[in-house]
Amino acid sequence: MIFNVLTLFPEMIREATSHSILGRGVRAGHITVNCVNIRDFAINKHGQVDDSPYGGGAGMVMMAPPVFDAYEHVLAGIRASSVHADLRINTPVPVIYLSPQGRVLTQKIAEEIAALPEIILLCGHYEGIDERVIEDIVTDEISIGDYVLTGGEPAALVLMDAVSRLVPGVLGKPESFKDESFSEGLLEYPHYTRPPVFRGKAVPEVLLSGHHGQIAAWRREQARARTAAKRPDLLDL
Fold first, then answer.
1. CATH code given to domain 179-236
2. Mean pLDDT of the chain
3. What's this model's pTM, rounded to 2 decimal places?
4. Most exposed of 3, 25, 33, 224 (fewest Cβ within 10 Å)?
5. 20: Cβ–Cβ under 8 A, 6 or more apart, which residues?
6. How many CB atoms lie within 10 A of CB 155?
7. Which residues on adjacent β-strands are paired with residue 96?
């Protein structure tokens, strides 16, 4: 899986994806993170990438030319690469703009994206990006919730984390995510580990029984009960 990230702060992306499971996935070659600094395509020697909005208003807007040039730079690299060459020729690489106006990220969407060989993530800043960029190159807009961030990088990292762990080889055991929250439309059942008794609270006896059928039934029951208590809306889907 290849993530091409168009950003004003590539160091944020590189640093966050160099640790833990994502870092191991990168080092093992299961995922590739290609950061492109939009500021490298600034319109002048001062590194300008934003300007005041037409019509007035507070804040600044990211200009179209630097973003377009950064995007075309990525496309040139994609066309020149032999990796996924057949898919690159016949299938346009999706461009996802991280935006509070997009569809809200879910496990299902993460699974859809994980099935792709490569994507481009566009991180906005300030008041947003010139609308002509969104109209011409963006194929999807994704939000991580109904709130506003200072930039698209944290949202891009959330999406990358959710998607990367679904890429074969990134997690040590594929079954690690099969029973997780939302994978079956329910929240995940509770987990326990040693010691068997902690501060007077014991691990449920069924988990110590060694009876796999009873354990599976208990976990299904707990998942449904937990979903009903914490996210009853999921039971209506």
1. 1.10.1270.20
2. 93
3. 0.90
4. 224
5. none
6. 24
7. 121, 140
